[in-house]
Design goal:
This protein is mainly alpha-helical and about 220 residues long. The protein folds into two domains: about 160 residues, no CATH class; about 60 residues, no CATH class. The chain is built from twelve helices and two strands. It is elongated. The termini are far apart. About 30% of the residues are buried.
């Protein structure tokens, strides 16, 4: 019997590259959670558990629709897979529907060794070796989400407006403002920079805090 009978060409489509696609979907879910968290911090709204879930779900839906348009997501690009249907991109409708099915598929796929939900949508992964021309054509989509990840990390690390102003009104903030050694030099410098930025934009509360903070006032006058 020919070895070709055991090649991937004869495997059911929903078993092909099972673990690579599983990891890519898990990575995309984690990415959507990070982007949602970063968006809430960028907007400086209350980050309640409900708000975090809603932001993550909305981001996941947008990512899934975009992934349906192109077949690419950041996770799939990293593992060298593109999702296809009949040789082309699945389309936004399949991408949107898959957003609801992936959370169901992820826990059962390792046990059943099948992607039944993908089979029902008639989508399957296509291997695209890294750095090939076909992979490079998807860099625009992957690059966009990677840029969003970097932006989210920035907003997660840097203090929001409310965090910066609240910090400068506390004892640690007083030490920061009056050239004393604060517990966290990074938090001190970033909070002062954020307060100065808000004051320059005309925020009355920030202007009052900057006026009472010699370090911020000095930075404001530069």
């Amino acid at each position: 019997m020919s070895d070709a009978l055991f090649s991937s060409e004869f495997e059911p489509a929903d078993t092909r590259y099972l673990w690579r696609l599983w990891f890519a979907d898990l990575l995309d879910l984690a990415t959507s959670a990070l982007l949602g968290w970063g968006a809430l911090r960028a907007l400086d709204v209350d980050r309640t558990p409900r708000a975090l879930v809603v932001a993550g779900v909305v981001t996941w839906l947008l990512m899934s629709v975009a992934g349906g348009l192109s077949g690419w997501t950041l996770g799939r690009g990293l593992v060298g897979l593109r999702l296809v249907s009949d040789g082309g991109a699945p389309g936004p409708v399949r991408g949107f529907l898959r957003a609801f099915l992936v959370p169901l598929d992820l826990p059962i796929a390792p046990m059943l060794q099948r992607r039944y939900c993908d089979r029902s949508l008639k989508v399957q992964p296509e291997a695209v070796p890294l750095l090939t021309k076909k992979w490079q054509r998807g860099l625009g989509w992957q690059g966009f989400w990677l840029l969003m990840v970097f932006a989210s990390v920035w907003f997660v690390v840097m203090p929001t407006r409310s965090e910066a102003l609240t910090y400068l009104k506390k004892l640690d903030g007083w030490r920061c403002c009056h050239a004393k050694t604060p517990p966290s030099p990074f938090k001190c410098s970033t909070s002062v920079s954020r307060a100065v930025s808000e004051a320059k934009d005309g925020d009355a509360q920030a202007q009052a805090i900057v006026a009472d903070c010699p370090r911020a006032s000095a930075e404001m006058g530069r």
